[in-house]
Design goal:
Blueprint: H1 29-44, E1 53-57, H2 68-75, E2 84-87, H3 93-106, E3 113-117, E4 126-127, E5 142-143, H4 144-150, E6 151-152, E7 157-158, H5 159-169, H6 174-194, E8 204-208, E9 211-215, H7 227-231, H8 240-263
Parallel strand pairs: 1-2, 1-3
Antiparallel strand pairs: 4-5, 6-7, 8-9
């Protein structure tokens, strides 16, 4: 029976975001997902047995075991009778699960659905094709983080290169990019210091040799970022010489155009 009533999001939480190869680098995405699911249920005062379905977005699943969504659900204490599945829509994976959860409820298939996203770039493995052996030469290792998550499969173009192409197309200067990045970092730093993120973050316990470490603050925020420090960063995705060459040709074109007008 189709549900004609409204659908509500009654609880939401997240872990703090770790930096690449940072504090969370030893934890699987499904472990982090399990922590969040458990907290979401606690905040909503909903029993584990009341959940009809779990939908989780995750792009980097190589080497993570069968159905990471179900792994997260079971680690959160949900019964084995609760179905779970993964969605891979790249950066839109997590949001797509919310839409699918809404549809499942409106269609009458479910009453309560857990939707969300989980990811660990740090644990994305390197892989090599050895199923049929290597007849000659050495086999190349494949970085699954780049191959499965950050490279256009149709054109073999890195996402960073796509950004550079857009910068060129819309003539966005390096200074404009630095100013935007500075504003973003400063706003994030101020929000973190003011405690704006604390309510939405569920702490993660990490076992170390020194004891249990509590991780509850976003790690990627670079406190004290200045425009001067950003200017020192080198481009990551294109050769600096290409930028210089492009600027030279652009300036020569402007000079030639102005000279042509003067001659006229």
């Amino acid at each position: 029976m189709v549900n004609t009533g409204d659908v509500f999001i009654v609880s939401a939480a997240r872990t703090a975001i770790g930096s690449f190869n940072g504090t969370l680098s030893k934890l699987k995405a499904s472990e982090l997902g399990g922590v969040v699911i458990k907290e979401v249920l606690n905040r909503a005062n909903v029993g584990n047995e009341d959940i009809d379905e779990v939908i989780i977005g995750q792009t980097l699943t190589s080497g993570q075991g069968q159905n990471p969504s179900r792994q997260a659900a079971l680690q959160a204490g949900l019964p084995i009778s609760v179905p779970a599945y993964n969605i891979n829509m790249l950066c839109g994976s997590g949001l797509k699960t919310v839409a699918l959860g809404y549809q499942s409820i409106r269609c009458g298939d479910s009453k309560i659905v857990i939707s969300g996203g989980q990811e660990s770039m740090s644990l994305a493995p390197h892989a090599i094709y050895l199923r049929n052996g290597i007849k000659m030469g050495s086999g190349a290792m494949l970085d699954t983080m780049l191959h499965d998550g950050l490279t256009d499969a149709m054109h073999n173009i890195h996402m960073g290169v796509t950004a550079e192409n857009l910068v060129k197309q819309y003539e966005i200067s390096r200074h404009e990019q630095d100013e935007f990045a500075l504003r973003s970092q400063n706003l994030a730093e101020n929000a973190q210091k003011a405690g704006y993120f604390e309510e939405e973050i569920v702490p993660v316990e990490i076992k170390t040799r020194a004891g249990v470490q509590i991780f509850n603050k976003d790690e990627y925020i670079k406190a004290g970022t200045t425009i001067e420090s950003l200017k020192k960063l080198k481009p990551c995705f294109i050769d600096v010489s290409q930028i210089i060459q492009s600027l030279i040709f652009k300036n020569l074109s402007v000079l030639y155009s102005n000279f042509f007008r003067m001659e006229q």
